[in-house]
């Protein structure tokens, strides 16, 4: 495939390395030095776009890709308040949009483990749940998109929790997500259920950005034969 990279920071460079290793070509690179090159004409020379930028620019980036008629894979988080707008534009243009709050295969298996544990803990009101997420200091949003996905799955299962909060002293019906920004940590997510007598804890720790980048390239490959609104659930068949 010929891939357009929208966002050419550390993640973009990691995606480039893996994509080229897997036999693909990078046809376009967009960063803060050449935003004018992100246009329909240039995108139509590519087969798929992979977008890792910031929430403020993501919506427009998706729209240009839809107008160009190419699939877009995005790992940008923090824009979901505009989800319906993006999904409508995708449908109106008969486009393809593959979104993941986290493209790591391991994290997506962790999502399923988290849901199962929450289901098992639902009748156990003696346990309180909380979450901690740790990322590098360059990460702009908090909590992370992965933490929000984990929290939403917990809230679906636990009758004692109605909403998540970030770095607060929570009320009894609130799930607190503690966010820490430390050094160059790629990502650590921990869910802890604690009672008066014990606790149960599950953790996913990323060793590098490679797992996220590899998953994004797999998603781009998946878009070549699949259309519509897609997620890692579709790719992994879970």
Number of separate strands? 11
Radius of gyration over alpha carbons?
19 Å
Number of discrete helical segments? 8
The largest sheet has its strands arranged as 2-1-3-4-5-11
Mean pLDDT: 96
Percentage of β-strand residues: 15-25%
Shape: elongated
The residue fraction in helices comes out at 25-40%
Could you state the order of secondary-structure elements as H and E? EHEHEHEHEHEHEEEEHEH
- The span between the termini is 26 Å
Low-confidence stretches: none
Q: Mind describing the biggest β-sheet?
A: 6 strands, parallel
Give me some keywords for this one:
about 240 residues; alpha/beta; six-stranded parallel beta sheet; five-stranded mixed beta sheet; 8 helices; about 35% helix
Lay out the secondary structure:
Blueprint: E1 2-6, H1 10-21, E2 25-30, H2 40-43, E3 48-51, H3 55-68, E4 72-74, H4 83-92, E5 96-99, H5 105-121, E6 128-135, H6 145-157, E7 163-166, E8 174-181, E9 188-194, E10 199-205, H7 210-222, E11 228-230, H8 232-236
Parallel strand pairs: 1-2, 1-3, 3-4, 4-5, 5-11, 6-8, 7-8
Antiparallel strand pairs: 6-9, 9-10
Helix pairs in contact: 1-7, 5-6
